[in-house]
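Lecture 7 notes. Example A: sequence first, then its structure tokens.
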Amino acid sequence: MSRRVRVKPSKSQSLVGMIAGAVFVVIGISLMPMMGTFGLIWTLFALAIAGMHALNFFSNKGVASWEIDVNSTDREDDFEAKLRKLNRLKEDGLINENEFEKKRTEIMKSEW
């Protein structure tokens, strides 16, 4: 079984990236009158960098830096992944307690 894992910067890395991006936006705005098109392109790239890091800092999903395909043939990994996914659904409020228990029981029975 193959699954894709998204890797994104930590909150502290995103905070530093957001601040650095904001500084470069300010520099770009001040350079724009002197540098013309280059100043505009600089500012747009800096804005994109600051925006990406702000999204990663303020949201749980964010923008992944890397995506890794993980091949798992171990049945225990699949079992654990199903239980973890089910738990995340419950924590996010996407399923209620009754649905959680019902599906958990199904997963537990299928493992044995």
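Example B, a different protein, same format:
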Amino acid sequence: MTVSSANRTALFIDGANLYSTAKALGFDIDYKRLLKEFQSHGTLVRAFYYTAVIEDQEFSVRPLLDWLDYNGFTVVTKPTKEFIDANGHRKVKGNMDIELTVDAMELADRLDHIVLFSGDGHFRSLVEAVQRRGVRVTVVSTISSQPPLIADELRRQADVFTDLTDLQSYIARSPLERPTPREASLHSTHNVHRRTPLKGDPTPGPFKG
């Protein structure tokens, strides 16, 4: 079913997960094109981007986060935490599941449709919870990689599963284009900035929901 103009949609992007998925498929995301694609299908209420920031990489990733913030995304970040595991190895933790879940639950009653860019099976309970409120959920990840990057339980729970490869021609960055600030240093993030998405011109696209 094509998304109608009255459809109120919000995007929830697990930044680290989407980055890893796109890299596994061999392309980079053009976030300006991504935003425009979804603005062309109904009313885009909000586009959230979540990532954890490693303290000593803050300077290198700030240009990307600022670009997203000034170009229609609501950026949610937090610093990673370092710890030593039981084997004495240094580990870095930067999980954004709670922040994404809280925002989705708070907005659910004002939405018709949620698009979750993540393959993380931890979000299955969130998807189920917002579905009980009458919200349709599309999950964007991939089964085209080896191994597939979406958890089977999340794929089963979603109303619609969209493989990222189906969106590639609409949201991939052209190799000839000048890239936005690098995302490679950004892996996973609460400095919260609230910004209303910019309006985009209607364009044809593959998105179904």
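Note on Example B: The beta strands are 8-14, 43-53, 74-79, 81-84, 90-93, 113-117, 136-141, 160-163, 191-192. The helical segments are 15-25, 31-39, 58-70, 97-107, 124-132, 152-157, 164-171.
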